[in-house]
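Why do we care about 3D structure at all? Because function follows from shape, and shape follows, mostly, from sequence. That is the central idea of this module. The next example makes it concrete: a single protein chain, its amino acid sequence, and then its structure expressed as tokens.
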Amino acid sequence: MHITLESDYAIRIILYLLQHEGRTDARTIAENTGVTLRFSLKILRKLVAAGLVRSYKGAAGGYEAARRPEEISLADVMEVTEGTYCLSRCLEPSAVCSQSGGGCCKVQRIFGEISETVRARLAEATFDLFLDPPPGEGNSNQ
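And the structure:
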């Protein structure tokens, strides 16, 4: 089981923007993240619409992170590309459980618990965890 390629790329793009202060053009982002320019632009549009990235037009335009690393979680980014995480389609609001005649079966309950655990962990995993601490900070025992 893997996250989608789009989510993987969106995470790379956010991480790149957080590591490089100031505005960066889409071509530079694409080249440095290994994402095609066309796909980068598609993802950047979604990230801008979600308020995770700022977009600037014109000769001095480009993109930059709209929040600090500790204010952006994996859940924030993945929900932009995939929607709310659910382990199974049976957890979607429109799903009807074939095992329980329309109610909630044990499988659905357990999948729901697992999904909630994963969503909570993704929300806890903020991008400051991915960034190296500035020189002189951090634990030297790691």
